[in-house]
Amino acid sequence: MNGCVFCKIVKKEIPAKEVYRDGEIVAFRDINPKAPVHILVIPVKHLEDLSKAGPKDRELLGKLLYSVKEIAAGAGLEKSGYKLISNNGIGSGQLVFHLHFHILGGWQKKPEWQV
Ligand code: AMP
Ligand code: ZN
C-alpha cells in the first residue's frame, strides 16, 4: 500500500535486516529493538491489522502464526521462550498500520515483569 513502510520493506524499497522471506511472509529485525531479540513477522499482503482480516485470510493467518513459531526457533528462542505481541488499532499503541507480530526474547535473566 502506498506510503506503508512495511510494504516498502516487502518490495525491498527500503532496507531491512531480514531473517525470513517467502511468497506470503517476511520477517525482519525491529529497527528500534525493545528486547535483545526483536523480530517483526508480517504478511506480504497489506492488512492494516487483525481486525481487517476476512474469512479469505484464514489460511494466511494460520501460516503467519506457524511462521512465528519457526522464526522464533530459528532465532534460538525455542528453549528460552519469547513474548508475542500484535498491536491492533490506535488504542493499542500501534504505529505501523500493516499487520505484524512482534517476537521479543533473548533476555539473559528474567525481565523485571516476570516473577
Ligand atoms: P507497532 O507499535 O506495533 O505498530 O510497532 C511498529 C514497530 O515497527 C516498532 O517497534 C518500530 O520500531 C518498528 N519499525 C518501524 N519502522 C521500521 C523499519 N523501517 N524497520 C524495522 N522496524 C521498523
Ligand atoms: Zn503495508
UniProtKB/TrEMBL annotation:
Residue numbers annotated as active site: 100
> Which positions are tagged coiled coil?
none
Domain of life, source organism: Bacteria
Q: Where is the HIT domain?
A: 5-113
UniProt motif Histidine triad motif: location: 98-102
One Pfam short name? HIT
Molecular functions (GO terms): catalytic activity
Q: What is this protein called?
A: Purine nucleoside phosphoramidase, Hit-like protein involved in cell-cycle regulation
- Look up and give the organism this protein is from: Candidatus Gottesmanbacteria bacterium GW2011_GWA2_43_14
Q: What broad taxonomic lineage does this protein's source fall under?
A: Bacteria, Candidatus Gottesmaniibacteriota
| Originating gene | hinT
